[in-house]
Amino acid sequence: MQKLKDLKIIFLLIGFISQISFFTPKVFAGSFGAEIFCAMREGGNDHESSWEAAYSYIKRQKGGIFKVSPAQAAALIIETVVREKDNFGYCIQYLDQLYPDRELQRELEEEEERKMQEELAAEERRREIEALIEEDENLSEEDFDRYSY
Predict the structure, then answer these.
(1) Alpha-carbon gap, residue 10 to 116, rounded angstroms
(2) Which residues lie closer than 8 Å to 50 by C-beta, 6 or more apart?
(3) pTM for the full model?
(4) In the 8-state DSSP scheme, what is residue 100?
């Protein structure tokens, strides 16, 4: 019976320690990642360089088994900025760039798809014209005598 209690305590301690080690760095990483992003944006850097710096920091600092996706990192930054409005009030204007306009992305993808189809259609027309020209050249090489019956 004593061994069962000891095992329960050991598992409880392991669970508590793993919870601290897995979740605490995520909070700190998101907070400092938001500081990096906002400081760089306020300093005049473009979105891409600021995002890459913050995202790479969050990826390195977050503990745990699984990696952080870009969407998770963006959510961490947004949560930190919203939670700490007093510290990051100047950064709210940059948050919309973390989640790009999905409708605009869809339109750009459709436009790209349309251009690809137009290029394929133009290539197909070019092949058909080349085939007709080649066929015409074959006919012109033969001598036709209109009056030979």
Answers:
(1) 61
(2) 36, 37, 40, 41, 94
(3) 0.50
(4) -
